[in-house]
Amino acid sequence: MIPTAVSALLGGMLLVAGIPKLRDRRGMLQAVQGYRLLPAPLEQITAATLPVAEVLLGALLLAGVPFPLVPAAAAALFLMFFAALAINLLRGRRELDCGCFAFMSESRTPRISWFHAIRALVLAATASALALVPGGYGIAVTPLPEQLLGLALAVLVFAAVLGALAARAVITPGRRSLDSHLAYAQHELRAPSR
Q1: In terms of C-beta distances under 8 Å and separation of at least 24 residues, what long-range contacts does 157-163 make, across chains too?
Q2: Is the pTM of this model over 0.85?
Q3: Given a cut of 90, is residue 145 above it in pLDDT?
């Protein structure tokens, strides 16, 4: 059940990361170019193939395809992300768009940090562990009830993480809360007009 849940979580994460990149080819190319790691022809190829690889690997992991090569390829992809982030952080270049899940809006300054690099390394280790599951996992190996429980667990964890991220976007310590802005507006609307 746990390998199925981990596979589904990794797959869902890659899909959530890859699908927006497929739709924003210009943003993807700018993110790849920002890292300054590849010659120009390879930047174009990487920007075009990286989202496809993320979506393909995500779909295969989510479906529980029982080939150890799938999580191993995901681990290699996450290691590549770690290397790109770590190299630029060691160069002192932090004002980069991570390009992890979506691209920054033009109004916000993009920043990478060691959090992004460590997260990529943890995901690489998780995918590597999945590739080494004794006896394998997935559709051909795991009984259907176990697969369904694993998928349900993955959906629950994914929903909790998305809920926490949504709450974090609204509730930010040290800043005026949304409610305080709305209270001011409500006061202004109720004030008698002169």
Answers
A1: 157/5, 157/9, 158/9, 158/12
A2: no
A3: no
